[in-house]
Specification:
Elements lengths: L4 H12 L10 E8 L4 E5 L12 H10 L6 E9 L12 H10 L5 E5 L5 E5 H4 L11
Parallel strand pairs: 3-4
Antiparallel strand pairs: 1-2, 1-3, 4-5
Bound molecules: tetrahydrodeoxyuridine.
The site of tetrahydrodeoxyuridine has 14 residues, from helix 2.
């Protein structure tokens, strides 16, 4: 993870460019780093039937897991309505639960405004006392 932060942040911002968000206008990009060093990107994909929307983070996780990756170090997330995110975008509860399934407590979550301005958390901080994941395996 060390020395991959910048790359991960840039990948999340780039993936945000592919967001399909005609209903909310809230465009999100994510970049997920595997323990082997591969990066999987994702964006939110909305639908006229609103509940069918998929978040950027889960797009990235499902792309990775469907290509046999199950071990992850970190994810960068950038979201907002403007040309660039005006605030930090935090993962929704469902996405935190998906992280819980595949990640350890020290999994890193970067919430990104731009390449210079981001915050860093662990999964344990954003989902304390989470259910499942390693504890049930
Ligand atoms: N969204 C994400 O992609 N990730 C999050 O963590 C929060 C919400 C998307 C879903 C929807 O397309 C739009 O943002 C507004 O909720």
């Amino acid at each position: 993870m060390e020395n991959r932060r910048e790359e991960l942040i840039r990948a999340a911002l780039a993936a945000r460019g592919f967001a399909y968000a005609p209903y909310s206008g809230f465009r999100v990009g994510a970049a997920l780093l595997t323990k082997e060093g591969r990066i999987f990107t994702g964006c939110n994909v909305e639908n006229a039937s609103y509940g069918a929307a998929n978040c950027a983070e889960r797009t990235a996780f499902f792309k990775a897991v469907s290509e046999r990756e199950r071990r992850f170090d970190a994810i960068a997330i950038a979201g907002g309505k403007g040309e660039m995110p005006e605030d930090y975008a935090y993962p929704c509860g469902i996405c935190r639960q998906v992280m819980q399934e595949f990640c350890e407590a020290d999994f890193i979550i970067l919430t990104v405004k731009n390449e210079q301005d981001y915050k860093e958390y662990s999964l344990k901080e954003l989902l304390p006392h989470g259910f499942g994941g390693d504890r049930l395996k």
